[in-house]
Specification:
single chain, Rossmann fold, 3 domains, 10 helices, 43% helix
Amino acid sequence: MTGHNIIAIGASAGGVETLSKLVSQLPSDLNAAVFVAIHFPPHATSVLPQILNRLKTVPAQHPAEGDAIEAGRIYIAPPDYHLFIQKGRIHLDHGARENGHRPAIDTMFRSIAHTYGRRVVGVILTGTLDDGAAGLLTIKAQGGVALVQDPNEALFTGMPESAIKTVKVDEILKVREIATRLIELSNTPIQEKKLMTEEISREGEWVAQEKAAIERGERSGMASAFTCPDCGGVLWELQDQSLMRYRCHVGHAYSIDSLLSEKDNSLERALWSANRALEEKAALARRMAAQAKRSNHLMSEEQFLERAAEAESHAAVLKQVLLQQIELKLQPEETKKS
């Protein structure tokens, strides 16, 4: 019988260090193919394969489109591409971001779960927010095993805690224990499991069907009151078990935490734009005041100076709000929670 020889790992902040620690404890003849999604900036140059290959355990690479899947290799989703799994091969996709990320952990997890089912072990490591929770739910629904790094050990607790809250995980382990468990599972014959029902993996198709039904006038649909931070389209509310998500018809998808984070970023950008507009208004008013003074229009000069002072005052208030928001973002997660 086949063992759990498909391993899917997701991580975000602190992921390079944690993944390196995990891979350092795996044998070079690991009886499994390992797939990794870590949040990279879209235009970053990733050297993660080189970092992992220095450990001289399981060889790592950024796969190319159509690469065949082999046991005993680590396949890392390259920056700005989702990693999908088709039977025996890898597909790279530049599609819509999920939870604000491409590559996204949820995207890769769902693809692997539906291709390999009970053979999959999903692993959530350190990271902020909650990307990976929906994907791990799909892995469990398809009969796979769900492992999560102990939040007490994780450099960033958001992703592990979200996965534990959302999914009935099989084990919560430290990194060293995860490595040992992966080795055991890769050599353990798969036991039959009753699959749970789930809808997350088909949510893109579901939204397309709902949108088409609305256009035909068949029903009003389940559009939410929220708009997509990426494209401005209507977000559709999707719920599977205890997990609520949002997806627009273009394909951008968000968990609640990720949507809130993106809305915070949108608000910050709007505030900076307003701050810039006020500062430009003040500068223009001062130039008009100078022009009025040269023309000996003293009343107009006074009025323009008053407008400039008012705009500068409003800009100062906005800047103070923005600086407070930045300070809050820079605080450690534990401080924010308290």
